[in-house]
From TrEMBL:
It is a multi-pass membrane protein. Its main location: membrane. It is found in: Membrane. This is Major facilitator superfamily protein. Pfam families: MFS_1. The chain crosses the membrane at residues 50-71, 83-100, 145-163, 169-187, 258-283, 295-314, 351-372. Residues 198-208 have a biased composition (Acidic residues). It comes from Arabidopsis thaliana.
């Protein structure tokens, strides 16, 4: 059974890698491209670029806040492979625009197109990949596989950032568009649903056993069994009526205090991360004169450390101290990291804080693992959609707080 599941996940991980490679490839150059397209001088702090980034985060966040629960709900009904097709198709066009030209007019065409498409595309591959893992991997093995999934995405970031360090800007956007296209073709050809009733029964039994046998006393009560097993009537209603995705979310949340707690943690963790990301690179450019190569080196260092920690450290740490303690430690180190970056006095400080990255990378895999254990295989899409929706909502709120603070 384990070999079978790993064989299935191989194709998913390849799809995630190709998608992540395309996304990470353009990140180091977007700051320079944006400043060159909308700012009059390279030496200006250029508040417009910061506000454009904030507007993009707010608009995309509002769209994905609505779309992620819908996509998660639809994936439970029509299959993950079907729902993956649309966002992977739409993701090809924005980098193709900048691959052609990068002047002001084409930048704004890219900007508007990316905002519209990202309302459906942003976070969708990750959301559905988590739902796929949760449906095909049982019990405590899920959080390890969530770590593997995050690690593969981080590896894609390593490869993409290293490539961005070497490629010219025009080639970067061409390669990104091609990678999205190959990821779409690979997913359509090789990825299979492979969700059968006997697998769901095995997962239910393994969830119960793992919850009862978990050595961490705090986790024993929390993860004893999926919350909807004791309410088959409610599951039937959610799965077999025309309830909206919002009502599905409310139905799930009302049945689980633990799920509410994971959503609260998701909101505040993502709020901090989104706020930092919306302005941090512009801060480094204005304060220390960072350029494309400096951004690439910093992101490369972070993604290398993060991928190693997620692939090799997280599974062992979960077995040693339990999911809740791993989550608490990750949140603490995330706070310390943000505090250090907020008082950066020299260009080496952002590099030095990467020593905290291994632990900060544990937050979302732990959250997804805990949340996935609260429902059965048939509701994993809804749960991951809830988490993605909350992440999008925090992404909407964060720029309202951070952009005025950094755009002066």
């Amino acid at each position: 059974m384990e070999e079978y599941r790993l064989g299935e996940l191989r194709h998913l991980l390849t799809t995630v890698f190709l998608s992540g490679f395309s996304e990470f490839l353009v990140k180091p150059v977007m700051t320079d491209v944006t400043v060159a397209a909308v700012c009059s001088g390279l030496n200006e702090t250029c508040s417009l670029a910061v506000y454009l980034t904030g507007v993009e985060q707010v608009t995309v966040g509002l769209g994905t806040m609505v779309m992620m629960p819908v996509i998660g709900n639809l994936s439970d009904r029509y299959g993950i492979k079907t729902l993956l097709t649309l966002p992977m198709c739409l993701s090809i066009l924005p980098p193709a625009i900048l691959a052609y030209r990068r002047d002001t007019n084409f930048f704004y065409a890219f900007y508007i197109t990316k905002i519209l498409f990202d309302m459906v595309c942003q976070g969708t591959v990750d959301c559905l990949a988590h739902a796929y893992v949760a449906k095909n991997v049982c019990g405590r093995k899920r959080i390890s596989m969530f770590g593997v999934l995050a690690g593969v995405r981080s590896i894609s970031g390593v490869c993409a950032t290293f490539s961005a360090r070497l490629l010219p800007i025009a080639s970067i956007f061409q390669v990104a568009a091609i990678s999205f296209f190959f990821g779409l073709v690979y997913m359509r050809v090789f990825l299979k649903e492979r969700l059968h009733d006997d697998d769901e029964d095995d997962c239910d039994e393994d969830d119960n056993t793992s919850g009862r046998n978990h050595h961490d006393g705090g986790d024993l009560t929390m993860l004893a069994e999926p919350i909807l097993r004791d309410a088959p009537t409610k599951i039937h209603i959610v799965l077999n009526t025309k309830y909206s995705s919002l009502k599905d979310m409310v139905s799930l949340i009302k049945n689980s205090t633990i799920l509410v707690q994971t959503l609260v943690v998701t909101f505040f963790a993502t709020f901090a991360q989104s706020g930092m990301q919306s302005a941090f690179l512009y801060f480094l450019k204005a304060r220390f004169g960072f350029n494309k190569n400096d951004f690439a080196e910093l992101i490369l260092l972070v993604t290398i450390i993060g991928s190693i920690s997620q692939l090799f450290i997280l599974p062992k740490l979960v077995s040693a101290i339990g999911e809740r303690r791993v989550l608490s430690t990750g949140l603490l180190m995330d706070s310390v990291n943000a505090a250090c970056l907020s008082v950066s006095w020299s260009a080496w400080v952002p590099y030095a804080t990467t020593v905290l990255v291994p632990v900060t990378m544990f937050v979302m895999p732990s959250v997804c693992g805990i949340a996935s254990r609260q429902v059965g295989p048939g509701e994993q899409g809804k749960v991951q959609g809830c988490i993605s929706g909350v992440k999008s909502f925090s992404g909407v709120v964060a720029p309202f707080i951070y952009s005025p603070l950094t755009g002066t």
